Amino acid sequence: MKKxxxxxxxxxxxxxxCKKDKTEPILGNVDDRLSETLKAYQTxxxxxxxxxxxxxxxxxxxxxxxxxxxxxxxxxxxxADYATTPxxxxxxxxxxxxxxxxxxTYSTLHLIADPTPSKFGGETGEGFYxxxxxxxxxxxxxxxxxxxxFNKSKLVLVRSKSVTDNSSAFEAPDNMEAxxxxxxxxxxxxxxxxxxxxxxxxxxxxxxxxSYIDAGxxxxxxxxxxxxxxxxxxxxxxxxxxxxxxxxxxxSFDAATGFIxxxxxxxxxxxxxxxxxxxxxxxxxxxxxxxxxVYGTYSECYTGFTVDGVIDAYGVRTIPNxxxxxxxxxxxxxxxxxxxxxLGTAYGAYGPAIIPTVSVDGxxxxxxxxxxxxxxxxxxxxxxxxxxxxxxxxxxxxxxTDTKVYDMVAVADARSWITFx
Length: 421
Fold this sequence. Notes:
DUF4302, DUF4302 domain-containing protein
């Protein structure tokens, strides 16, 4: 009896295994879905009547603005704020680990990633840590967000609205910088929700930051941004208390009040005002800056003093062969430090010898103790103005903005400052 039951069971099992499964996966074949996704992306890219504005943030925090026009024949025409003449190259869409946009022939985009310094000035073997293959992160009708597959650089494509929109794309960051620089002081204030914030605006590096006090502790959030029209759009959202900021829109300067007006992505009004002191000052930074120069014995500045919002107000970058201002807190074997002007192969035979003093409240002040010679007549006002600013009455706050980046800000009025890194 048991043997008969076993035969019946095996026979039923065999019949069941012979039945054809007529069901299909609910979501369809994976390869087919990927193919359809890639086709949809290509249709979207090629279907933009006026093309796309592209905003790149490399892993080394270099920003660039592009204009792209894509065809359905895998050709793209692009230009950039650093190479404004349009050039044509090819692109592909491919399913790697994620749907990916590949710029597969050398193009304007490749320049910023080129590992040969003579090509575009990047680091040997690395360029500016950019990419030319980008995975899709998200897409809406007008905005596509991508991430580099190797260096994780960010690329945001925004659908252009008109020929005029395209023609102003490369001018918009300069126009925004001109607006933001109308605020004359280093320190700036705004109220976000119910929090008083110190606002950090870096038009040169396109960085926006907010600092606020939470339970007695100073907290800082910041992000790089890109500029589209009169909007400042963040690559990363900033969370400030209960508020999240992803963009500032309608940025303008009100000459009557001296404020910058804008609205956030939530529609809340935001006013940015001048201030002459930090929200909270770390009195330990000045001594740390002097004791630990970025390059062992010195720190570098590439733009000289900013005065009343004007970067390089004295024109150090116009000195022939100028590369950097090098600040030595202390010259070996001497009781003084020095401000030297590096001209690519040697220091200029000029610049002040200065002695720093740190006060009990953490501010640096300087007195002059000689000089390294007299500057040529043509650049003498530049050297004199720079020297005099170091000797300002009241000295400087020292603000650490990154691991090895320090800003010296005039205590008297916060209307002049210099960055060492």
